[in-house]
Amino acid sequence: MTRDRVFAVKRRQIQPFSFNREVAEVFEDMLVRSVPLYRESIRRQAELARRFYQPRTRIYDLGCSHGNFGVRLQALFMQTSFTLVGVDTSRPMLEKYRNRLAPPEPGRCIHLVCGRMEDIRITNASVVVINLTLQFLNPSKRENLIQQIFSGMVPGGILLLMEKTVHPEPALHHLQLDVYQQFKRENGYSDLEISQKRDALEKVLIPDSLDTHFQRLYRAGFSQVEVWLKWFNFSAIMAVKQGGTPGVFMDR
After folding, report:
1. d(C-alpha 168, C-alpha 142), whole Å
2. Model-level pTM?
3. Model confidence over 113-124: pLDDT tens digits?
4. pLDDT at 102 (0 to 100)
5. What is the pLDDT of residues 10-61, one digit of tens each?
6. Alpha-carbon distances of 20 from 27, 47, 109, 174, 214, rounded to whole Å
7. What are the C-alpha distances in Å from 62 to residues 117, 162, 199, 246?
8. Which residues contact 247 (CB under 8 A, 6 or more apart)?
9. Cβ–Cβ under 8 Å, residues 143 and 219
């Protein structure tokens, strides 16, 4: 794993954060050292996907980056057939994803698409995953994307969403940020790295409150919405579309 030193040297001018080749090369280290409980969340998301997946439907990973969810899913499903569509705007990330995949087997398909998630037509989906990606989408487009996901999902399907979140109470919001910065220091990031990355993400990563997420999901039509994992300003949410037999994995 290549160590993340993207922001280790002082820069005269901070450019907006992008998922370019430099970031792609160190992205695994960046995730593990910057996202609390990251590996646990991917592991449990894959298990939930296995539980809610319905035969002859699709799984979508919107903002799939270099493929941690897909690789985990590929191993977990073993001989079970499935179709996963991974979408990302970063070609370097998708290149890394392709290089990590196990050789294709009959009935086990992972299709990678370079494009914007809001432009993808979601159809016949029983599982949709958005990991730390909705926060990079223009806030004015988020409602429509969630509605498209709901409309393209079969009854009993699940949306798994993990995001940075903000607390509406300023004191608690600042407390969460302080704890998060301490987390990054404990993982070896310097104050310079923390500061420069924060500046690079300003106006690029715009988090929502949990209440905003919940209201958006309910407006789209999801009947059951729950936080299943939370660490200060990081929240993992599952939203289930009513109907069918949710949470029952059917082997073939």
Report:
1. 19
2. 0.94
3. 999 999 999 999
4. 81
5. 999 999 999 999 999 999 999 999 999 999 999 999 999 999 999 999 999 9
6. 10, 30, 26, 30, 32
7. 6, 11, 25, 21
8. 51, 52, 156, 158, 240
9. yes
- Let me know: does 156 contact 244? Beta carbons within 8 Å: yes
Between CA 214 and CA 100 the distance in angstroms is 34
Residues in CB range of 206: below 8 A, 6 or more apart: 135, 139
Nearest alpha carbon to residue 16 among 198, 194, 138 = 198
Structure confidence at residue 229 as a pLDDT band (50, 70, 90): very high
The two tokens of residue 192 are: 């310079």
User: Can you give the pLDDT at residue 244?
Assistant: 63
CA distance 9 to 236: 32
CB 208 within 8 A of CB 166: yes
Interior CA angle at 162 toward 232 and 129, to 5°? Answer: 170
